[in-house]
Design brief:
The complex is a heterodimer of chains A (about 150) and B (about 170). Chain A has about 150 residues and is mainly alpha-helical. Helix content of chain A is about 65%, strand content about 0%. Chain A contains six helices and no strands.
Chain lengths: ~150, ~170
């Protein structure tokens, strides 16, 4: 009898597991995917080192909802980004736009690289020319020829 | 001797950059709305939900738009400053109760005093998003033509107000 009760209980288990399964996040998975892809590149203003996609802050949830609604209304990714930067500035973008103010940010590393390469080249060139200068002077050359001509005998 | 001057120079420049970097506050996000007109809204008043207020109604005066909420603890810090400013009467303060229960907000104003000429209620935070609100309290100084002139994020202190906002208010009121 006891075995039968256990058996019945085990039969019930999958049903209770089903009850705990997560409900679908949004009615439109394609749009949800697009929203998440876009918000991966956006910064959550409240917890600044998290993306808008990953943040659980209240504002991030509101902004995700806003993005969802704008996408549903047919706005392009660019339009949604423009909407957010108009309100929160370029700071929301993890990829800052290219403009005079950010030139240093975008090109600075390359300038440093080229500068360092130039410096290394100049240093190496100076070093080789200094090594070349270590060759014999006219006077020393004469002494060498003299010595060789005498075959080492004085 | 000269050999060491170049690395030392580079080191000092680097320390300079780091020192400046340390003093910058990453919480202070520059608002792109400065110099632009204040985003429009038409929100119900906290005191009387049947009446509405819009920034257009405040054309012709310089006003402080203070975003706050009853759940926001740092708003309590600046409450005394706001009360002082309103007592002085130089600058009208309009509040926006951000994502809050109106009853809770009324209770706070009842117990701590009300510095606001009027408070509008932004239940879902939509207007907050239009203003680029990301952490209450935030204050916006809006001029006679409805242009945002200054934004302050975080609790206002008396010194901060006197130093950063008051001179601007006097200039804008001319």
């Amino acid at each position: 009898m006891r075995r039968w009760t256990t058996f019945l209980l085990v039969l019930w288990l999958p049903l209770s597991a089903m009850a705990g399964e997560a409900r679908p996040v949004a009615e439109d998975p394609v749009l949800e995917q697009r929203m998440i892809a876009l918000s991966e590149d956006l910064r959550c203003l409240v917890c600044q080192n998290e993306s808008l996609a990953g943040s659980r802050a209240d504002l991030a949830q509101d902004l995700r909802q806003e993005i969802r609604e704008q996408m549903r209304a047919g706005k392009s990714d660019q339009e949604v980004i423009a909407y957010l930067t108009q309100r929160y500035g370029d700071f929301v973008l993890y990829k800052p736009p290219l403009k005079p103010l950010t030139w240093l940010l975008w090109f600075g590393p390359f300038v440093l690289l080229i500068g360092a390469a130039g410096g290394l080249y100049a240093y190496l060139k100076r070093r080789t020319s200094r090594l070349a200068d270590d060759s014999l002077s006219e006077e020393e050359k004469k002494r060498v020829t003299d010595l060789l001509a005498n075959n080492g005998n004085k | 001797m000269k050999r060491f001057l170049i690395p030392l120079g580079i080191f000092i420049v680097l320390v300079g950059f780091l020192a400046v970097g340390l003093k910058l506050d990453p919480r202070e996000v520059p608002s792109p709305l400065i110099g632009k007109s204040a985003p429009d809204f038409n929100l119900p008043l906290l005191s009387d939900p049947a009446r509405h207020l819009s920034p257009a109604d405040l054309r012709g005066k310089v006003w402080l738009f203070n975003v706050w909420a009853s759940w926001c603890t740092s708003c309590r810090q600046e409450h005394e400053t706001l009360l002082e400013i309103s007592r002085q009467g130089n600058l009208p303060i309009y509040g926006m109760d951000y994502k809050d229960q109106p009853a809770d907000a009324l209770a706070v104003l009842g117990s701590m005093g009300n510095p606001y000429v009027e408070t509008v209620v932004d239940l879902d935070g939509r207007v907050g998003i239009n203003y680029g609100v990301y952490g209450v309290p935030e204050s916006y100084l809006i001029d006679k033509n409805g242009i945002i002139r200054f934004k302050f994020t975080g609790p206002l202190s008396r010194e901060g107000f006197d130093k950063k906002i008051l001179p601007l208010v006097k200039e804008l009121q001319k």
